[in-house]
Design goal:
Layout (H helix, E strand, L loop, with lengths): L14 H35 L9 H10 L11 H17 L4 H21 L19 H7 L3
Pfam families: DUF4389
Keywords: Membrane, Transmembrane, Transmembrane helix
Protein name: Membrane protein
């Protein structure tokens, strides 16, 4: 939005009183337009909130990701598969002085899946996250096409 204003060169001392009277019908119309704007905004908010997109369509992903991340709490352990694999990788790194490449690919793939579902559930993207584990440090060609909708 761009707003520009210009001060007139010659001003009348009493014309502003007439202009204030001419503004009253505009205020009445604007009052009803603001009420309509508020009502439509509330309706749109609830339409987006209770669209089946972020909760119903994502339920299968939520169930899978509850196992991957810290969504499942079992006694003292509440870390999830990603945390467990990261701890295993940390021990492997401590004792062998190298990060296991296949474990790295799996952890990145699990985190990629979690982040895709989080972006979809928070309405940051319209692309439905695929049910696949894209392992490795780089995205696969199929994922790029799914993100742009083609």
């Amino acid at each position: 939005m761009a707003v520009s204003a210009e001060l007139d060169g010659r001003l009348s001392r009493w014309l502003w009183l007439v202009k204030w009277i001419l503004v009253i019908p505009h205020w009445i119309v604007l009052f009803f337009l603001w009420i309509a704007f508020f009502v439509v905004t509330v309706i749109a908010f609830f339409a987006i909130l209770f669209l089946v997109k972020w909760w119903l369509l994502a339920i299968p992903h939520y169930l899978v990701l509850a196992f991957f991340s810290s969504g499942m709490h079992a006694g003292w352990w509440s870390g999830g598969l990603i945390t467990l694999l990261t701890l295993i990788a940390a021990f492997a790194l401590a004792f062998t002085d190298r990060y296991p490449r296949d474990l790295f690919a799996l952890i990145v793939g699990l985190n990629r899946w979690v982040l895709r579902v989080a972006a979809y559930a928070s309405l940051m993207t319209d692309a439905y996250p695929p049910f696949r584990l894209d392992q490795g440090g780089t995205e696969t060609a199929g994922t790029e096409h799914a993100a742009d909708g083609s």
